[in-house]
Amino acid sequence: MFLILGSTTVDLLITGMEHLPALGADEFAQDNLVFTSRPLRMTIGGNGANSAYVLGRLDAATPGAVRLASAVGADELGTLMRGWLDAAGVDTRTLRTRDDAGTSTTTIAMDADFHRASFHHAGA
Q1: Is the dihedral of CA 42, 109, 107, 89 positive or negative?
Q2: How many CB atoms lie within 10 A of CB 74?
Q3: How far is CA 14 from the centre of its chain?
């Protein structure tokens, strides 16, 4: 059995932009309003959740062989994360749900040249 300790984060990926928006303006302008040709994507993030998910998928024949000790918030993103991990065969009995914090998120905006800006909310 694998016991994974680490962070659990929902990654929000914004891609398909020609350039990243400029900072500093307080209204919508040509430099700071950027359109994207692709929809927002949500994926598993965080060192603990990523490791547990991959190991769970690799060891799918043995349900519960991978356990994640981490935390999510008592919110929709926490429910979504728990569902992803359960579907991968990860034992989530030690994935704590915290009522006092939201699920951690990282929003990553990436332009056509793969330059990126990231915004992280530490959360649970």
Answers
A1: positive
A2: 14
A3: 12
- Amino acid residing at 91: D
Radius of gyration, CA atoms only, the chain: 17
State pTM to two decimals.
0.84
The domain defined by 2-121 carries CATH number 3.40.50.261: no
Q: What is the largest CA-CA distance in the chain?
A: 54
Counting every residue written for the chain, the total comes to: 124
Which regions of 1-124 does DSSP assign to beta strands (E)?
2-5, 9-17, 41-45, 66-73, 90-91, 95-98, 104-111, 116-121
Domain edges within the chain: 2-121
Write out pLDDT tens, residues 92-113.
Answer: 999 999 999 999 999 999 988 8
